[in-house]
Amino acid sequence: MILFFGLLRPYKGLDTLLEAFRAVEDAELWIVGNPRMPVEPLRELAARAPGRVRFLTRFVEDAEVPAIMRRADILVLPYRDVEQSGVLYTGLAFAKPMVLSAVGGFPELASRHGAARIVPPHNPAELAHALGELTADSGAREVLSAAAARAAQEEYSWDSIAARTRDLYEELLAARR
């Protein structure tokens, strides 16, 4: 199962994802999130896909997130523009293999941690290729999943974030003295 999760907004590239999904075999796509854009054009694109596309277009309560994330085999964020994403860090916390657009801080995360495949934004062919490879290769998904888990347990763990925050405050206080 391929999962898109988060607010449905035009800059998030859902149309690109649905175009790409037309070329992905043996997969199901879930689009989950509260719409902040018309959904009917997305449903029309979904109707052309050979695989099953499920829409859950509503606010998702925090208590529901773990079950949805655990169900996913791949998390996809085909954004056109963004700096960072809370969904990305949620994906890391759930050790999800990811396919991300080359926007904002996404490429850095992929290169530093190896937790994601990067594709150009607004490129359905490249996105379809990456999704197709991962749906067909459980070993590749396992490698990305292990990298995501390491990133979540190390650099992006709450202990690590707290230590870096404390160090920054100490540095700023020392410079002020």
How would you describe what is shown here?
Helix content is 49%, strand content 15%. The protein has 177 residues and is α/β, with parallel strands linked by helices. The chain has a single domain (2-176), classed as Glycogen Phosphorylase B (Rossmann fold, 3-Layer(aba) Sandwich). Strands 3-2-1-4-5-6 form a 6-stranded parallel sheet, sandwiched between helices.
Report the β-strand fraction as a percent range: 5-15%
CATH topology title: Rossmann fold
How would a crystallographer describe the biggest sheet? 6 strands, parallel
Number of H/I helices: 8
Which assembly state applies to the chains in this document? single chain
Number of domains: 1
Beta-strand segment tally:
6
Kindly, what is the distance between the CA atoms of the first and last residues, rounded to a whole number of angstroms? 55 Å
Q: Just name the CATH architecture.
A: 3-Layer(aba) Sandwich
Class inferred from helices and paired strands: alpha/beta
Principal-axis shape equals: globular
Strand arrangement, major sheet: 3-2-1-4-5-6
Q: Low-confidence segments, ≥5 residues, pLDDT <50?
A: none
CATH class: Alpha Beta
CATH superfamily, by name, is: Glycogen Phosphorylase B
Average residue-wise pLDDT? 93
Question: Helical content, roughly?
Answer: 40-55%
